[in-house]
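To: structure subgroup
Subject: Chain for Friday's discussion

All,

I'm putting the inputs and outputs inline so they're searchable in the archive.
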Amino acid sequence: MTDNSNSSSFPGAATRDDANSRELMLPQGGMPALAGASPYGPAATQDVMKGGMDASSMIHAFRRRWLMALGMGLLAGVLGAGVLWALFPESATAFRYFQVESSEQSIIDPSLNAAKSDFDLFRQTQVFLIKTPSVLNSALRTGELGQLSFFDGVPVADQAKYLGEELRVQFPQGSQVLEIRLSGAAPAEELKEIVEAVSKAYLDEVVIESKIQRQKPRDILNESYRDLDEEIKRKTDAYMALIKDSGSPLQYEFGGDPELAQFRTAINESVKKIAELESRLYDATMQYEIMVRQYQDPSVLDQRIEQALESDPKYQYLKQKQLSYEMYIMDLEAVQSNKGSSAQTRQLQKQANAISQQMNQYRQEMTAAIKQQNRTQVDPYLTGINNQMNVTRAGISQQIQAAKKQQEELLDEIRGRSQIDTDLLARNAEIEGLKMIQSGITERIEHWDVELKRPDRVAEFGSVDTSENINKSERYAIAGLGGLSCLGLVAFGISYLEFRNRKLNGPDQIDQGLGIRVVGTLPSLSGRKALDPSHPIVAQLTESIDSVRTALMHESTTRRRQIVLVTSPSTLEGRTTVSSQLAASLARAGRRTLLIDGDMRHPALHTLFDLPLEDGLCEVLRAEVEVSDVVRPTHAEGLWVLTAGYCDADAVHALATDQVQPIFEKLRGEYDFIIIDGAPVLGLSDALLFGQHCDGALLSVLRDHTTLPKIHQSAELLRSVGIRLIGSVINGMQSKPDRRITALQSVTAKSERKQIENLEA
């Protein structure tokens, strides 16, 4: 599309730029001095072409795209704030602490704690036991716990699993304090109620059960005491019946025989030794039975299974994969209004359920494998305690056999020296030995009664406390700051993308950045304002274009500037406005001026001046008419127009021949100034061909539209073919009309005042 002009000199005329509803670009103010400047100017610097974005360029980029930046920024801000509002709901935390001793402290006999677990293993066991289904299901059975809002959307069958996933059980910093913590979007009172129920279930199912397990050794001792008491009673009854049948006295006196008295003392010592050895053997047997029962306890088996799963790479891979699916589903649900409604969410949930089934199946296989291993293979731990028990039993049994052999030798010696019934004596010694064993068991039972009164290894510490994680104000702050951040980032991103286009911001970028002199800066002027001669911007237009004319006329006195080409890098950059207004200003200054429409492919001056298109420059180039016959006068005195005519390939080709030079030589002799409204430089050769016959060229550019690379490319292209670049004119600069200029509109000439006075009279 070609440029059109619209000014105070030609009210009502439509410009080529107005065809696309763009503002007219008209001169404003004075122009920089032209004398002494290099005609080619310095080379373009890299700062304006490839430099980074500074504060000024960012402001200009935002100014050009402020509506898009704010619109998209507000949209992104609202979406970002909504996402943060969903991701950071109001939440609270409930927590409870228990004090855990590093080891069980025996009150009387440390040997009773010979099987105590390592503290690290004990801590892992407690963390695991709290999250077991038995504890969690016991907690959920408390009141209406499953009806709380914390479990909204969770099936009843999955509530225990969900609670186990959300519950945080740990020993902070490896301390002796057990912490049960639960955080969520539910009210703090609900979280407190859940933690209280879990704590109570832990005490009932784990701590109290552990205390019951501690009671088992005493029960074994009681059972052994009762069995031994029955055996002593049975042997005593047999002993008394044997005495009655034999008629022997109940006590045996050895008279004054000192040697027999020594034998009796030796037999008593032998009986005591055998009783002590049998008591030791019994204690070892009982301790072995306690250790075996504790090791075969179902909770210990569950712990072994869990430890095996924790160290199994396949199970851990499935666990991590399930966790990633669940986190992804939570992120999707956070940005969706209807949870689980999208096909993607349902597909992900289906895959997560499949992985959960694989994990359950793998757990079952691992449990069956461990149980089968316990049945078919020798357990290293049980093998160890079995070997230890066998060694202990063999040693004590050997000592018992030696003691019994010694006792038998003593009895044989007595038989040879006395007529005393040695069978009764042996039975009596056996009963005494059993009584000594019973006395040892009684002492053990008394020790256990004392040990059972010692404090539990796990003790309650304080009550359930709550704290707010994100309150209402913090939630608003997070959403607000997030929304503002999104707004700022989007606005900055759009501004940066706009900056990457390198559009013209102001005169400094052309003058100092590209090394092209700025002849003038032209304000924005809409067609409606141009139609109003009394509008202040029209007065500014006239003064500005006259300033450019004055500078051009001044330079023409020192350098030849009779024929001037007005062009632009591309279309819609105000060149028709500049050329037509400059020609009209030269005519007002008393200079015979010819305005030529050099945009032959897309002419517009004939519309601007209401002239016929035919019989114009193209017809002259085709030698169909003489140039003097097609130059037409206008309503403005001293201004003539040569329209483009009907363009074809012959006219364009003729422009590159030698027949053009005589035409311009003839026109030079008839007019003071010839202004050519040329075609764009980039993409066409017409402007470069016209420039071969001109004394210089003005480059018309549009602020916020023309890009700096195109300006630089156009200038270099003009210079490369020997066209002298006078300077550039920047259209679209924002400005306010000068009072000294607009005041002239209110001044009435003396002759006009007299006419007005005569009319009033």
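Points worth raising on Friday:
The two ends are 55 Å apart (CA to CA).
The longest strand covers residues 458-470.

D.
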